[in-house]
Fold this sequence. Notes:
Blueprint: E1 5-9, E2 16-24, H1 28-36, E3 46-51, E4 57-66, E5 77-84, H2 86-97, E6 102-104, H3 109-116, H4 122-132, H5 137-147, H6 150-174, H7 186-206, H8 210-215, E7 217-223, H9 229-237, E8 255-261, E9 264-270, H10 280-295, E10 298-304, E11 319-325, E12 341-343, H11 352-366, H12 378-396, H13 402-420, H14 426-433
Parallel strand pairs: 1-6, 7-9, 7-10, 10-11, 11-12
Antiparallel strand pairs: 1-2, 2-5, 3-4, 4-5, 8-9
Helix pairs in contact: 4-5, 6-7, 6-13, 7-12, 12-13
Amino acid sequence: MAQDTIFASSSGRPPAAIAIVRVSGPDASEAIRRLAGSLPKPRQAAFAVLKRSDGAPIDDAVVLWFPGPASATGEDIAEFQVHGGRAVLAALLGELARIEGLRPAEPGEFTRRAFENGKLGLTEAEGLDDLIHADTDIQRRHALRQMKGLLGRRAENWRQRIIAASALVEVGIDFSDEGDVPDDLLAPAMQDVAALADEIRQVLAASAHGERLRDGLVVAIAGAPNVGKSTLLNRIAQREAAIVSPFAGTTRDVIEVHLDLGGYPVVLLDTAGIREAVDPVEQEGVRRARGRAEEADLVLWVSDATEGGADQPPDFSAFVWQVWNKVDVAPARGGVAAAPSFVISAGTGQGVDDLIGAIGQFAADYFSSVETGLVTRLRQRKLLEEAVVALDRAASGSARGEELVAEELRLAATALGRLLGRVDVEDILDAIFRDFCIGK
């Protein structure tokens, strides 16, 4: 399949003003000749009338020709820019499918070929995937930096330093009897290894919130039944995302709404009312509500202002804010002293803007370290942790012999190699590229 020539629409869903169709592979030049008559000059736009095999015109087009390896995928690439009508696009794709050796591209296949031909590393490909799926400005900025090599360059530098330290250790093992080889090469190597382990540890610590950036800060709306949780969700989301009913226990499952608050991604959860339930379905809803609230970054514990006494939330590990609702009916009574408190009416909107502003500020503070963070995926963090563990073992294992130190350094270099996509990554490539859209 790597030798196939692939094609796909690389622009948005028709109809549109312009549609872009790309072809990549050894028969890309033949596609241009068959459709446009002749090859244009490399990397220069040329006007052509695209024609079918029977001579009937398809559309006026701008045609570009990018000979490999100086192209996005490292292969020969043809690009056709046509009018973005459905019929035009269908006719062009249909004609490409009739050319022997061409086939439609799989999701992410263009980017995968760029990776396999050395045009970008695996972390850069992951950054491109994040950029495609970015919903907020901070997600876009960070994904763009990752695509430009934010993590990849640092990881390659770490890998080269490990290789250099390993070379010093290997020289001591293999050529210890040579007269021009210094007696103690292990000490300077171990100093650099220890410093490198600390450097990667600092990156891991600074990037604690980076993984959350891809999915969004999780804010759970929790509380007893019928206190207005679903109404509050709808008010913040500005749409009817959840069913609102005067009957307790209406919400049985967790409802998610994705928001952009000041450029920061936030996932708002409406959970079932937390109480001792008898109905098995409601019991499952309460169990899920507790679980999702426990995993959230922030819990809005909603209480009914018309009821007396303090409404004490469960002991969640997340930050908990007390929200007194229905103050348009009665003033808020005593609250939870230890938590930030908000007085609102989800029905009329009173005080909700202040609550939304506070959530946005919480998200800004939460993601404040992400701009300098390097790690955005679990895969990246796990491999960096593996490298640190191996480096620590190498730094503390010099007394056990240089051979064991050399093996630990090899394991650390291998972990970074897998991070960059240099070694042993076939098992994860499909998982990464299947999330790309077709034509990318």
